[in-house]
# Entry
Amino acid sequence: MDFNKLPKTELHLHLDCSISYDAVRKMNPDISQEYYNQNFISPAKCRTLGEYIKGALEGIKLMQTRKNLSLVTDDLFKQLKKDNVIYAEIRFAPLLHTQGDLNPEEVVSVVEEAVFHAVSGYGIEARLILCTLRHFTAEQSLETVKLVQLFRNSLVAGFDLAGDEAGFPLDNHIAAFEYAMENSIFCTAHAGEARGPESIQEIIKNPAVTRIGHGVRCAEKPELMKIIKERGIHLEICPTSNVQSNVYDEYRDHPVKKLFDYGISAGINTDARTLSHISLSEEYRKLAEVFGWTASDFYAANVNALNAAFLPEQLKLKLKKRFESEMNNI
Ligand SMILES: [Zn+2]
# Structure
């Protein structure tokens, strides 16, 4: 199977964790390939999620100007094109990009405009998800969800809670998720990755959360798997990222097949293309190699993801048609 040619949907993808060396070099010619390999790409095996996401700090340092935010966005679309991604939801935390002259509103506006141009330039449909982070205060979290509301008629489509779930509780973010529910904002949240099933149980108390970033540790609790299946909650699964951040020892230990076989809606994602040094095509190749996935499994994963996309129904239908026709032509 030519994994590059398979049409793909990717719902879980961090902008600041997916910068190619080519783009880094353009932003700062003093950064060598060697430095990039050691500092932008996370170690193949990290001890914790906290260690894994440290690599993002290097990218964030560079993403503080209009020019660089646009450049990084365009760079990501080049990578998506190579992977034949037909629909992507790209996420980032606007409050992390205000170390220069930009305020949070300007940050969102710059990235949204860059995505708008890339959508037509690369022929890839896309939306943005704005992230709050576990270590943020309640005020910062509310400020972020209010940005989603402010930009709701643009390509900004949803709200996410990211960062280190093991180090910080949900408390500071409850009000933000309540605000999202009151304003019918699409929500996803990182949970059930560094922390176990209890972290998933906690976040799905808010009905606005229709997807979970990772959520794979629900596999440890059959009652929770049942709830997730019955409520149709979609899991954005990123197998390589989970192995790298030490949630699982090896790829073959990952419950991705168990969750799919049980009938939970789940899709396949890279999470962080640079930190994990991976493309989505490579992730598909690993699934085929380790779990024997075939075209029908990839078909199901992509249909699940398109159904769970933060998009109006009509656009989902259009994308599903494109997906079907590209699948039939492989
Ligand atoms: Zn993530």
